[in-house]
Amino acid sequence: NSKTVGNAKTVTATVSIDNANYSLSNSTAITTASITPKEITGAFAAANKVYDGANAAAVTERNLQGVIDQDAVVLIGGTATFSDKNVGIGKSVTLSGATLSGLDKDNYLLSSVSDASANISPKAVSVSPVASSKVYGAVDPAFSGTTAGFLEADGIAVSYVRSPGEQVASYTINGVLSPEDALGNYEITYNTALFEITTARLVVIADN
User: Fold this and answer.
1) How far is it, in rounded angstroms, from Cα 28 to Cα 123?
2) Per residue in 105-129, pLDDT tens?
3) Sign of the C-alpha dihedral, residues 164, 168, 171, 173?
4) What is the phi/psi pair of residue 98, to 5°?
5) pTM of the predicted model, to two decimals?
6) What are residue 161's DSSP bridge partners?
7) Partners of 13 in the beta sheet?
């Protein structure tokens, strides 16, 4: 009685016989049968992103395989996630909780949604020491600097060190970052600054 899914649906058949010895008292026959949902599969594409400390992914397109051409049914919703939060190429992305929508959605059963792949690229960051100096023979001052772009949740720490030497000259101050295992998610610009050791002033006193 209709194309849609349902149990014990009325099925009507037009009947006839080709035998002159008989005649039919009815020209139709009626029974019941069920139409079950057609299983279909979904697919989607995910966007590349820059490392942001989370595994959330963005869906850029969705499609369904197995839908009959004239039917109105689409894939909607769901949460897309990368396999983990870290930088990588061709990382697996899953879509969970997606559902069917459209006038004909009840005629279909979404059996699965295939995984997508996308990239997480490193986040651009920098570390920049502040220039400093001392007089020859004095103790080094505490070095300082700034960082830019690191995510607070990664707990990146920085210490500032200079190249060795105690002669009057210019030395380089560098930033040293830790922990090492968190740094792979960043594209780091290591800036430097100068540390100057200047000449000490001597006072000469003549004896009488």
Assistant:
1) 72
2) 999 999 999 999 999 999 999 999 9
3) positive
4) -70, 150
5) 0.82
6) 174
7) 29
